[in-house]
Amino acid sequence: MSKAADDGGVPGGRGEPAQQLGGEAAGGKLASKLSASSFTPGWTKVSCPCCASERVEPLVLVKLGQKAVPETKRWLIKLIGAPQKDGGAGLLAHPGEDATGNIIVLSAPRCTLLRATEELGLCKIYHTGEMEAFAYNDRDNFRNSDNMEVFLTSAERQYIIKYELDGLRAQKDLRIPGLPDSCTLQKRDNIWQKLGQVGVVVDTFPLHNPDKLKDLSESWYSGNQLSQPLDKVNEYFGSSVAFYFSFLDFYTWSLLPPAILGLFIAYFSSRFGDEIYFTDYKNIWYPLISGHMFQAVFSMLWSTVVIELWKRRSSTLSYQWGTLNLAERFAEPRPGFHGDLGVNPVTGRVEPLFPEWKRDLRMALVSVPVVGLFLGLVVLGMMCFYWAEARVKWLHKDWDSMISQTFLYVPSVLHIVYTNMLATVYRTVATSLTEYENHREESAYDNHLTGKILVFTFFNNFAVLFHIAFFKQDVPLLRKRLASLLIITQLVNQVTEVVIPFLVDRFISAPNRSEREDDPKEDKFRNQGTLPTFPGLFAEYIELLVQFGYLSLFSCVFPLTAVLLLLNNLTEIRSDAYKICKLFRKPFYPPVASMGVWKVAFEVLSFVSVVSNCWLLLLSPRLQKTSQEAGMSGSHLLVGAVMVEHVLILVKVIMAALIPDEPDWIRKKREHIEYTSMQALRQQVSQGKISKAVCGKTKYTLGLHNK
Amino acid sequence: MSKAADDGGVPGGRGEPAQQLGGEAAGGKLASKLSASSFTPGWTKVSCPCCASERVEPLVLVKLGQKAVPETKRWLIKLIGAPQKDGGAGLLAHPGEDATGNIIVLSAPRCTLLRATEELGLCKIYHTGEMEAFAYNDRDNFRNSDNMEVFLTSAERQYIIKYELDGLRAQKDLRIPGLPDSCTLQKRDNIWQKLGQVGVVVDTFPLHNPDKLKDLSESWYSGNQLSQPLDKVNEYFGSSVAFYFSFLDFYTWSLLPPAILGLFIAYFSSRFGDEIYFTDYKNIWYPLISGHMFQAVFSMLWSTVVIELWKRRSSTLSYQWGTLNLAERFAEPRPGFHGDLGVNPVTGRVEPLFPEWKRDLRMALVSVPVVGLFLGLVVLGMMCFYWAEARVKWLHKDWDSMISQTFLYVPSVLHIVYTNMLATVYRTVATSLTEYENHREESAYDNHLTGKILVFTFFNNFAVLFHIAFFKQDVPLLRKRLASLLIITQLVNQVTEVVIPFLVDRFISAPNRSEREDDPKEDKFRNQGTLPTFPGLFAEYIELLVQFGYLSLFSCVFPLTAVLLLLNNLTEIRSDAYKICKLFRKPFYPPVASMGVWKVAFEVLSFVSVVSNCWLLLLSPRLQKTSQEAGMSGSHLLVGAVMVEHVLILVKVIMAALIPDEPDWIRKKREHIEYTSMQALRQQVSQGKISKAVCGKTKYTLGLHNK
Predict the structure, then answer these.
(1) In a 3-state reduction of DSSP, which class is residue A211?
(2) A-chain residues within 8 Å CB-CB of B677?
C-alpha cells in the first residue's frame, strides 16, 4: 500500500490490505508507471482476496468536478477500491494519467461481479444447460463463470458498477477530505448521491467498446438485414434497450396483416366507392358489412392478439436473457428512498422503512388530484383554443383586413405555446410527485414516473382527435387530421431525432473531438464524455404508443394507416439503432424482465379502441343512410352498436384470458425454480442455517471512518 | 408379526417389520383382544419406526363390500399399514370386531401425518409465533408438533388419510387376494380406485367426534349468537366448508347497507311516488336523480367493494388457516389423471404426463361447443315455451272450454319437465367432459367442473329474467317475477334443504338407528354410515350466486331485494350449520386457499350488473317521460346511458385494481417466505443437496408384490 493512499484519509489497512488496483495505483509513483497505453490488455496484474484476474477491462468513467482536489480523489479511489465489508464498493479504480486528473476509470473484480449477479437475481446457464438463478456459492457449476466477459453481458458488468457505487453508504459521520467542513456525511447517507450534490462527481457513464460497437452496428443497421441482432443488443446495451427494440421489431412485423388489409380496402374503395356491395339486391345486411366495418372489427381483435403474443415473446426473451427471476424487491432500496430505520420484515435487514399505506395515501390525495388538474388544464386549453378560433374567424369576417388575417393564426400559436409550457411544467411536477411518493424499488419509481408522463402525453396527443370524433362528430375532418398527423409527426420525429443530432455531431461536435488512432486511450474515454446523454426510451415508446393509438382508435376512418406506419417503422428501426450506437453516450440500464408499464398502456389502448371504433362506425354516413332506408331508427342503430361493442369487449377479455401469458415451457421452468427453492428450504431449515442466510451480507457492520 | 397377516398375501417382512397397528391387529387372535370399547382412549400402544404415540384416534371408516372375503380384508389391512417406501399407505388400521367384519377403522401415526403435512404444503405456527411452511426435518421447531390433535385440525388429519389412500399405487402387476383372477392390478394402477370399482370398498368416510361436534354446534347455531365460530368450523370440517361459511357470513353482513337503503327508498317511494323530487321547480336534472337510480349506482359500486374486501378477508383467513402456500402443483397427480409415464420437468419425479396443449385443444374443440349447445337448448326451450304459451292462449280465446283451460298449464309443465331433464343430462355430460379434459390437480378438476355446471345453472335461472328485461322490456312483469322468485325459491330451498331431511331423519332414519349410550363404539361408527352423504357445497354456493344475481342485476326494479335476502341469510346460516352438523355424514374436504372459481363467478356477475342496471334505468318510464318533457330524444338518452355505463365500468375496474387483493401484512409474510426459500436455495446448492431433494420421496422404488 502506497503512502499517498494512506494520507488520503481512508483508514485502510484493517486486517487485509486492499489489494485492488485502485489501492495500488492511487499513489503518485505507481500511477506514473501505468501509462495510458496500459489500459488494455490489462492495467496491472490484479488480485483480490477471492479471485485472480489477468486482464482488466475499463468499464465506467467517473468525471470529477472542479471541487475535487487530489486529496479528495485519492480518498475516493480508496473508497471505491475498499472491500464491501469495510464499507467500500469492492471495485477496481484507475486514476487516469495521474492523481490530479479529473477522471477515474472503473472496473470490477470477478468476486464483486459474481456477488452482485446473485444479489440482482440474474439467471445464468447452469452446467446442465438450463437457466438457473445464479448462486455465488455454486458459482463453479455455472458455465463460463471463470470468464466474466462471457459470463456477464457488457451491459450487466457496467450496471453492476453503477449498482455498487449507488449502494455506497457512510458507515458513520465523516468529513469528505479536501472539501470544506460543511460537506460532511451523516451515518447511512448515500455517498455517491452526496458527491454529486456537492460537485465532486459530475458524471458517471459507461464506456463504449469500439470493437464490439462496430460489430454490433454492422449486424444491426449497416446492411440490408431484416432481422435485428437482439441478443447482441442485449449483450451491449442491456435488456431495457433490447426489450424496446424487440417490441419495435415485433410490432412492426405484426403491422403486416392490417397493412395488407388496408391496401386491399383502399383499392376496392377507390374502385367501388366507400362500401363493398357483395350483391346487388336490396338485402339490408349485406351493405352493412362494409370494408371499413370489417377493418374496424379486424383491428380490434388484431390488437388483442398482438399484445397477448407479445407477452409470450416477452417472457421467452426474459428467460433467454436471464431476467425472469429478478430479486429487486429483496435488494437494497434505491438511493433516493428514505424512511425511518427499521428491520425489513421480508429480508430481516436493517434499512429505511416506509409504510405502504402512507405511499397509497400520498398517491390518492396528492398525485391523482394533481395529475387530474393538469389533464383539466389540457382540456381547458383546448376549449379556449376553439373559443378563440371561433371569435377570430367571426372578427375576420367582420373586418377582413390584413391585421385580422394575422390574428387568424394567433389562437393556434398560443395553443402550441401553452401546450408546450404545460408539458414542461408537468414533467417537473411529475418527477417531484414520484419522488414524494417515495418508492422503494427503482423499477417502481420508473413505472410511476413513466405512467404519469404517459397519461399526460397521451391525453395531449389525443384530446383534439377525441373532441373531433365524439363532440364535433365530423368524420371527414378526423380523417384529414389523422392523415396529416401521421405524415407530419413522423417526418418531424425522424428529423428531430436523427437528422439534427447527426448534423450537429458531424459538423459541430466532431471537428472539436478530432480523434486520432494514436490518441492515448484515456483521451478517447474522455471524448465519449463530450457526446450528449442518451435521452432515454420514453420518447421512443411514446412514439410507438401514439402510433398504435392512431392505428387502433381511428384506423377505420383512414385505411392506409397501417401501411404508413409499417414504412415508418422499417426506417425507424434503423434510425433508432444508429442513434443509440453513434450519436449518444452509452446509457446505463438495469436488467429488466419486461417493458413494464408500457405493456399496460398498450393493453388499455386496445380496449379503448373498441369503444372508439364502434362509435366511429356508428357515425359512418353510409351506415346511417342504409339503416334509414331499411327503416331502422337511430335508436335501434345505437342499440345495435352498443351490443356489438359489448360482444367485442367480451371476446377480447376471453381471448386475453385464454391465451396464456407465457409459453408452456417457460411456465414449467419457472415452476421448477419455485419447486427447487421450496425443497431447499425444507432440507435446510433443520440445519439452522436460514437464520444466518436471512441476515444476509453484513455490509455495514464495520466502519470506514475518517481520521 | 402374526401368521395370518403373512398368509394374507402381502410379502411384508422386507427388512423392518411393519409395526403399525394394522400389522399387529390383522391376526385373528390379536383382534379379539381389541374389543370395541378399547377404541378410545387408545387402541393399543402404537409405535412406528420414527415416532411413538400413546393414543390412537379413530378417524376414517372404510366399509367393505360383499366381495371382500377375510383374505382380502387381511391383505388390505396389511397394505394400509405397510410403510410408504414399501408401497403401503403408512396408516394405522383396525379391523373392527374381528377380521371378518365389513369395516376397517383407520388412523394415522405421527410421522405419516407430518410427512403429508409437508407434502400438502400446509403452514403451521413456528416457534417464533409466525406461520411458516411446515418442513418435516424442522418439525421440532413447530409449536405443538408432538401432539397431532392440536397440531393438525381434525379435518386435516382425516383428509391426510384419504390423501394417502388415494395415493396408493400398485408397485407391479398383482392379483387382489380373495378375488377372481380377473381382478388384477397393473403396475402403477391406482389401488383405491380399483378396489372401489370391483366392489371391495364401498365407502370411505371420516368419522364424527361427538364431543367436538356438540361443542361446535352449541357455539354455532344453538344459541342467539350473531358471529359464527369460523376457526372451529375450519378445525372440524376443513377450510373448504369454513370458506363457504365465512363468505356467507361476510356477504350477509355486507347486505346491511343496501338493505337500509332499500327500506329508505321503499318508504319514500310509497309516500312521494316513484321519484324523489328534491325541489319543485322544473330543473331537468333533479328529477333524474330518482331513488331507483341512486340505488342502481350504489349497488354497482357496492358489489365491487364487497368483492374486493372479501378477497382481502379471504387471504387473511387463508393465512390463519395455513393454506396460503399449498403445494398441490408439486404433489402427486389426482387419482383419475392419466397419461404417458415420463419425468415431470418441474419436480423431476416419474409420473403420468399429459401435455397442456392437448388439454387446451380438448377444452376448445369439445367442451366449449358442447356447453354452448346446452345453453342453446335452454334458449330453445324458452322460445318453445313462449311460442306454445301464445298458441294456447289464442286457442283458449277461440274455444274457451274446460279442456282449453287445462291446456293453459301444459306449456309451463312441459317447460319445467324439459328444464329439469336437461339439467340432469347436462350434469352427467359436464362430469364426462371434465374427466376427458384430464386435469392433473384435484382443484383444477373441481374448478372446471364447477365452472361448467355453474354457467348452465346460472343461464337456466336468469334466461327468463333477461328475456323479460331486454326483449320484452316489461319492467312491471320483471318486478313481479323477481319478487315471486325471491320469495318462492327461498321458501322452496329452506324446505328441501332442511325441513325434509330433518323430517326424514327424525321420523324415518332415527327410529331405525336407535342409538344407545352403551352401544359399542363400533356400532356407533357403523351408524354414521346410514346417514346420507353430504351433497357438497355447490348447491349452497349457487344459491348465494343466484341471490347475488337478483340483487345486483335487477335490484333497481325491486328495492326490497336486499332486505329479503338479509332476512333469508340470517336463517340460512343457522339452517346450513344445522344441516352439515346433524343431517349428513361428515364430508372429506381438502385444504383450500380460497373459494376458487366462485370468486370469479361473483366478480363476473358484478360487471354484468352494470350493463343490466344501466339498461333497466333506461327503461324506467318516469325517466323516459321526464327526458321527453325536457326535449331529449331517445337517442340522446341512450347515449347518456351508454356513457354512464362506461364510466361506471371504468370506475369499477380502477377500484378493483387499486384495492390490493391482500392486506399489506399478508403480502410481507408471503414475500418473507419467498425470500427465505430463495436464500435457502442459494445457500444449499453448493452442498450438492438439491439433486437429492429434487428427486423427492422415492415412494415407488421398492415393490410391494403379490406372491
Answers:
(1) helix
(2) 677-678, 680-681
